[in-house]
ABC-2 type transport system ATP-binding protein
Amino acid sequence: MTAVIETTGLSKHYPKGVRALDDVSIALEPNRIHALLGRNGAGKTTLMQLLTGQLIATSGDMRVLGGHPFENAQVLSQTCFIQESQKYPDGFRAQDVLAVARTLHPQWDADFERRLVADFRLPTDRQIKKLSRGQLSAIGIVVGLASRAPVTFFDEPYLGLDAVARQLFYDHLLADFAEHPRTILLSTHLIDEVANLLEHVVVIDEGRVLIDADADELRGRAYDVSGRADAVAAYVDGREVVAQQRLGGLANATVIGPIDAAARAELDAAGLTTSPVSLQALVVHLTRTPELATASL
Ligand SMILES: Nc1ncnc2c1ncn2[C@@H]1O[C@H](COP(=O)(O)OP(=O)(O)OP(=O)(O)O)[C@@H](O)[C@H]1O
């Protein structure tokens, strides 16, 4: 399938040796929800700014919907970028933002916009500078969803949003995505909250791609083992382990690798139980132990 977002050796360097993005090559398939994950300062915002024509790359190439995004009205009219700290003109109210957004996005759905405004309880006639942090985030979420842009970037869109509002965002995103498939690139630190939405995961670390994998494949890269401490110790001996915990006579270990038939038989014989690793735990482990992230490919 042709990628809707493609980068080749994309880099953004700043003076004093800062490599905000370094030789990034990714290809994202259309009509999927992709996650862009990584620690603070990893380069997520930089990548999104490059892909939306807000920054010029130091080197490398990129294509969004087949074109280079920089000053490309045709590409940009088909994309929507929701940033964490969006600035608005003085005196603007949410309804002004929505009015502008309506003109920018050809696929805008006004009915959906109204439903979202009501669900997020967004006071559209209040000045933006008087809105709470969460209400400010809600504006971005309404725009990002109602735009129905074929390529939508959400860069940590929910700073300050309460748990109910975050769940509303996930529910609306999933329901609307099912009816109107499009390409979503979502950057977040709340990995477990969005794990069920994700189909593909890109993790960057210090500007470089650390993991680029389908979410299911990634989940299959490790498993948790728990049971009697001596049995767990015997099982993990000679295997790649990224985390271990011991509580009295019991232990738990996170083991890298798929569970094949032989491993399963060994686990059964030892009376050990297994469970899937959470995506967040796995990303944390692999980011801490980068050699395992690539070794287990
Ligand atoms: N204008 C700039 N000048 C110098 N360094 C910069 C500039 N913009 C970004 N950086 C650096 O580039 C790196 C990547 O920043 P970026 O904002 O892309 O990270 P991020 O992954 O979005 O982080 P976070 O999760 O904290 O939002 C950081 O080390 C940052 O300090």
Residues 14, 18, 20, 38, 40-46 surround adenosine-5'-triphosphate (CB under 6 Å). The longest strand covers residues 18-28.
